[in-house]
Amino acid sequence: MMEAESSFEEDDHSLKHHYKMNQIIDRVYHHQLDRTVVVFRNVQETILFFEALRFNTSVYELAILMDQDDHYEDPEELMKTVFEQLEKALQHNRTLKTLIWRSFQMERGVIQLARVLSNLKDCSIENLNVSHNQIKKDGAEAIADMLKNNTFLISLDLSQNDICSSLIAKALYNNKTLRRLSLSGCGIFSTGAKVIFEMLQVNHTLEHLDLSLNNISSGMKPVQHLKSLNLKFNRIEDVQNIVFMLKQKDNNLESLNLSRNNICDKGALALSKAICDSLHFSKLKSFLLNDNRISHQGACVLADILVDNHVLKELGLMGVHGPIVSYDQMKNTFRSVIQNEFDQGNHTLVSFEKNWYWNDEQMDQMFIENQDITKRTLAMQKVFIPVLWQLDLDQESLETETFRFFRAFYQAMEDY
User: Fold this and answer.
1) Is there a contact between 22 and 49 (Cβ–Cβ < 8 Å)?
2) Which residues contact 237 (CB under 8 A, 6 or more apart)?
3) Closest by alpha carbon to 229, among 204, 257, 251?
4) pLDDT one-digit tens code per residue, 321-373
5) CB 3.0 to 4.6 Å from 235: which of 2, 217, 353, 407, for a disulfide?
6) Any idea what DSSP says for residue 62?
């Protein structure tokens, strides 16, 4: 009886899948989809889908997700058909820009995919996402071989793989098209970071680099052409090379994320000074230092970079440690920022992130009492100024300190 019920459930599941795939294929054939997710279970539907995709002019993003738990008629034959049909479709399709690949074959599937892309000299795919595929050395070698002569990929996401970063870095020495690379959560240590930054001394095309969620403490070198650098959740304490990068007149960095590292007040002071010294040529718009080992005193020093800076739009300093700064310190910091903004004719309200411990009634009342100030605001900029984020305080104390924080801000606003 149980076997019969199980068989009925499988048949029902297969019918639903078949109906859904037929709908997708029909809509792709009639150019009615701009993005879609597909799971192939048999050779026939695979061929039909890629035939429809071949001359499709509407789909720009395709996710192929083939989980281990799905029921496949013949997995090996099916995957062989997928790659053959995918290559044929990509030879003709000129609309598809993004390909996301997840397969029960994991690394083996990525190796096959890399070979397909290597065979294509001209292709519309610009963004490739093969994250979470358990890619190791063999997969990294296949991707590296593909990257050496690739002329169409602009963005590559290799995050959450145990990948050999040095193989990828060496393959990019002569690459002239890839502009965005994610190696987040790839188990990279400082030696791997060193190889990547050495490559960046030669490769001037790569502009956006994500090295978050790794084990990097050193190995970074100044790179002038990078526009965004994400080093969140590493083990960085020494910021000397980053400071040097910020001070260079020809640096193009617009976004820098150093959150969740081991940076202390000394590093915060050096970073603050570097940004202030580069005030006249800096392009930095977003600077995140959340959850480091920075005290409130160090955070206030960093907040001072806002005083004369008209480029920086986002300063992340949540999770600072140590004693709460005084009411006067808060008010003076706000007053300096606000005075500068109004002097420049830039009537900008400094905005704050709402956290779970804020008392809504208190915050609403604060805004009701200061409607005139709010009305004077002509623009909004996202700036986080440190006061009491994530302190080891009980709920009541947090609400009290939050209220005090806003009162200092609005008291400073009252002067203008």
Assistant:
1) no
2) 217, 261, 262, 263, 264, 267
3) 257
4) 655 455 565 556 556 655 665 555 544 344 433 333 334 454 445 444 444 44
5) 217
6) E
